[in-house]
Batch of 2 targets.
Target 1
Amino acid sequence: GAVVSQHPSWVICKSGTSVKIECRSLDFQATTMFWYRQFPKQSLMLMATSNEGSKATYEQGVEKDKFLINHASLTLSTLTVTSAHPEDSSFYICSAAGQGAQGYPNEQFFGPGTRLTVL
Amino acid sequence: GESVGLHLPTLSVQEGDNSIINCAYSNSASDYFIWYKQESGKGPQFIIDIRSNMDKRQGQRVTVLLNKTVKHLSLQIAATQPGDSAVYFCASGGNEKLTFGTGTRLTIIP
């Protein structure tokens, strides 16, 4: 199998606070994890790509100091939204690719998403 | 940069009928294409994929067609069921990154 989980599934926070979202590959080693953001009625937009043990690669227009990504192990990546503001409210989805997962090489397996609401 | 777009943002289909969802991509270097289904409040769910060396691939009730000449991708769903109601995204990739299309909301009418 290739199961990816996210925690929490939803979170509400006050403006100015930081929020951490976890992404875990449960039954395979995720050498690469991806973080996407999805606004209502829109598509998934890639925010960054992270490889285990190295710095994340951010897409153009994504503030790396605001969206901190850590991929310290082969089964866990975290996204921290620092000093969150209402415009950061969105659906954040991670995906993972790596060894031991069924499918094509580099096939991405998606988590269930985390709904962030910033008041 | 690459863009992947859909021709129709919404589609309503009578239950039991077939549906076709279309997608255009711009990067001719893309060699891997995937269709995802996303239900409200959930992550994307893999439906079917196709490599650029193929022009057709069939799954259970679904068929993906790839026309590399015009850079067009389609998803056909046969004998639609209420559970098929969702937003469908195409995505393309040439390396490890995926680019998603804008999405089509499919509604199955009972």
Target 2
Amino acid sequence: SQKIEQNSEALNIQEGKTATLTCNYTNYSPAYLQWYRQDPGRGPVFLLLIRENEKEKRKERLKVTFDTTLKQSLFHITASQPADSATYLCALVGNQGGKLIFGQGTELSVKP
Amino acid sequence: DAGVIQSPRHEVTEMGQEVTLRCKPISGHNSLFWYRQTMMRGLELLIYFNNNVPIDDSGMPEDRFSAKMPNASFSTLKIQPSEPRDSAVYFCASGDGTFSYEQYFGPGTRLTVT
């Protein structure tokens, strides 16, 4: 069956370090992969989209990689700040269209 | 723009009652999505509209759930009759394309069915 896995354990890092979050998938051939941020009590907020033919995408302090061979995406936040503390969700879109499937999310905590 | 607007923000109801959740998408967006989020199952797509037409409702749990989009600026998700297992946060999202494009989420409605 199709499955998306994100680090289930919360990630705790020190301010200024790089946070790396992982999204693995099985039995998918996603045409696109998206990353969202969700703060407590709020809806997810779109951050980045990467296509299957793109290896890497950057936006300010954010970087996303997409390895279709490993079936994995990595999400990096460089020079992390306490304000980056939130839950980060990855979401996949199949190449036949269809649903946007979300992972369970990884909670990131950046300590000052 | 005010973003996606949902009402009510919180709803507490008794089992068996009808619940109606409302959503106003961002003006100009032609896609609207209803999601449900729980700790156990995460964020799940319930139904998706494009140009006010339901495209994929395979995520709707059962016949107790129904959704409508009478015009481009309004959608409802109805649960009748409600059950305790329907307790969750329900999000509405809108977008200007298909699934492949970014979606803008509302603040959600926290539903508690006792």
